[in-house]
Design a protein that fits this description.
With 220 residues, this protein is of the alpha/beta class. The chain is built from 8 helices and 11 strands. Strand 10 and strand 11 form a beta hairpin.
Length: 220
């Protein structure tokens, strides 16, 4: 799952980025509102973590910009402001949830998963395709009764494919799910991860649509 974290506090941002990465998320961290808008124009995120008190462009303006552009990405407002009027302002602008600093990181992770499940087709936290089941929360994959051992990249790649069952995803779309903004990516990184994933799942599960991309195919 790919997150945009907009937080100007260096110490808090560092700890949040580290904790969320360890929890299995891909995190793009920006430190002001204008950079958040730029990132949202360039990339697609599963959840946005948005501080209200951002420099240059504040969090409420970023949120307003998103909703005016009909970007429906779930937004969790993370802020030190705990006045009722601040919460109401955020919710009225289109925020989906609100978390006041200081907060517990386990609660933050739980809220992110809850927001992701509210998206169409994601009510069930476990993704299922025939004998293949993926749990984003436990970060477990089972093929029938067998628990598969996947690397973080392999897990994220499989999750991206299972979130769009039957759809063909291009290499560029898969890269955007696996890697952070500005992160260096080798030219054949996706193909390498797909090769390893196929060895663990079985070759027929992932089909290459020549010149277009890859899709997951249910195997009986």
């Amino acid at each position: 799952m790919k997150l945009l974290l907009a937080e100007d506090d260096a110490m808090l941002g560092t700890s949040m980025e580290k904790a969320l990465t360890l929890a299995g998320f891909t995190v793009d961290w920006v430190r002001n509102g204008q950079h958040a808008i730029t990132a949202l124009q360039a990339l697609v995120y599963d959840v946005v973590l948005l501080d209200i008190g951002l420099p240059e462009v504040d969090g409420l303006q970023v949120l307003q910009h998103m909703r005016q552009r009909r970007q429906a990405t779930p937004v969790l407002m993370v802020t030190a402001r705990d006045a009722i009027r601040d919460r109401v302002a955020g919710l009225n602008q289109g925020a989906d949830d609100y978390l006041t600093k200081p907060f517990d990181l386990d609660e933050l992770v739980a809220r992110i998963h809850a927001l992701a499940r509210r998206q169409p087709g994601q009510a069930n936290p476990t993704l299922q395709m025939g004998r293949l089941a993926l749990s984003p929360i436990e970060r477990e994959v089972r093929l029938g009764d067998k628990l598969l051992s996947l690397s973080q990249r392999e897990f994220d790649l499989l999750q991206a494919l299972m979130q769009k069952p039957g759809a063909v995803l291009s290499v560029e779309q898969l890269e955007s799910k696996l890697y952070g903004w500005g992160e260096e990516i080798s030219s054949n990184a996706i193909e390498v991860h797909l090769h390893h994933l196929r060895r663990k799942l079985g070759e027929p599960w992932i089909r290459n649509v020549r010149g277009v991309g890859y899709k997951l195919v249910e195997v009986a």
